[in-house]
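Intended use. Records such as the Isocitrate/isopropylmalate dehydrogenase family protein entry shown here are meant for training and evaluating sequence-to-structure methods. They are not intended to support clinical decisions.
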Amino acid sequence: MKLAVIEGDGIGREVIPAAVKVLDAFGLDFEKVPLELGYTRWERTGTAISNSDIETIKGCDAILFGAVTTVQDPNYKSVLLTIRKELDLYANIRPVKPLPGIIGVTGRSDFDFILVRENTEGLYSGIEEIGPDLCWTKRVVTRKGSERIAEYACKLAKKRRNKLTIVHKSNVLKSDKFFLNICRQTATANGVEYEDMLVDSMAYSLMMHPEKYDVVVTTNLFGDILSDMCAALVGSLGLVPSANIGEKYAFFEPVHGSAPDIAGKGIANPLAAILCVKMLLEWMGEQRYPVIDEAIAHVLLKKIITPDLGGKASTLEVGNAVAEFVARHL
């Protein structure tokens, strides 16, 4: 299996090496393909990502990605959007599950659900016009896009509690009524129990009653907002992994960003990146991936944690501790 390893910018250069140590502990036959992409490269060369990089990535099976710094410059080509579009990574998957001993803003730890976000259309269609007195963005919701994200959500639901929540704003947006109907039809065809919620009501309910939900499916913008909001349930954006899944490729990325204010200090929390390794292993069918959960529980119990969680360990020390636990217990 070929894995593109892209550290990117800022703390991506610290958390990805720590995560790779955990991956290496499994002793799997990976061919790692390192690539330099992002703002640091753009500053030096004028190119953040090239057509040649895309071809190299397409020659791999999956991508382990750190973080990139995005700048407001018309000449800067977004690395993330380019990869998502070129590889047609239509499903953004965000598990929301508490870590042992870490309590989020609600003080609860009785939840375990997955947010499934359509990742290629909606208000992120890229079809826009900007004028002196009027700007507009076209919201695109297609049957193909809605059916395939609903199918993916149903596949996940059938492996869990067979329960799907469809999130929308169909009382205002006709395109959301279209999305809702397709999701309902898909759930029925798959024998998955479903309900639907307006996005504003859902935002409230996720904070008040997160234990009610199993798999949540929604459109691009709503999923973007809700998934970051739900990181507060876990305790931090620095603890949340994500996956971008397509028919052929998969892309795994912690959601915390490049954090330039702490970059280079060796104190960034690598747990989200390590959880991305767990998602990668699960995607590729490696049955031993749950040992990563055990390893993370171990380092949290032993207080081998970075300063953001109240500890004194460095990024690499946390990565080494998780990797050593994995190697001992496989």
